[in-house]
Amino acid sequence: QIIMDNLETPKTIRELSRMVGMNECYLKKGFKVTFGKTIHEFQQFQRIEKAKELLKAGKYSINEVAFKMGFGSASHFSSSFKKISGMRPCELLG
Questions:
Q1: By C-alpha distance, which of 58, 62, 57 is closest to 89?
Q2: Contact (CB, 8 A) for 48 and 12
Q3: What is the C-alpha separation between 73 and 32, in angstroms, rounded?
Q4: CA atoms within 13 A on the CB side of 8
Q5: Could you report the per-residue pLDDT of 73-86, keeping only the tens digit for each?
Q6: In whole angstroms, what is the distance from residue 17 CA to residue 25 CA?
Q7: Residue 91 and residue 75: Cα distance in Å, rounded?
Q8: pLDDT band for position 94 (50/70/90)?
Q9: Cα–Cα distance, 90 to 94 (Å, whole number)
C-alpha cells in the first residue's frame, strides 16, 4: 500500500524497509515471493499504469505526466513506458 500511495515519489528499498520495520534483504525476498516481481519492477509497472490513466484522461501532456509520475525526464519516462507497456506514450493521446 505504501508503494501505491507514493507512485509520484517512489521510495527506495531502504526507505520502504524502514517504513515497515523490516530488514532490506527480507523485504526484497518476501516481496518477490508475494508479488512475483522485484520492488522496483512492481513500482515501475504501477507508475506506468497510473501514467496510462492520466494520458487517457487527456488533461496532461506527456511531459506533464512524466514529471507528475516522478520521472527525471520525458525521455526516461518514454523509454520506461515503452519497455513496460509495449507502446509509446503518444499512442494513448487522443
A1: 62
A2: no
A3: 28
A4: 6
A5: 999 999 999 999 99
A6: 9
A7: 15
A8: low
A9: 9
C-alpha cell at 40: 522496483
Grid cell digits, residue 6: 507514493
**Which set of grid coordinates corresponds to residue 75?**
525521455
pLDDT tens string 47-77: 999 999 999 999 999 999 999 999 999 999 9
Of the candidates 55, 82, 90, the residue with the CA atom closest to the CA atom of residue 69? 55
Non-local (6+) Cβ contacts of 51 within 8 A are 65, 66, 69, 77, 81, 89
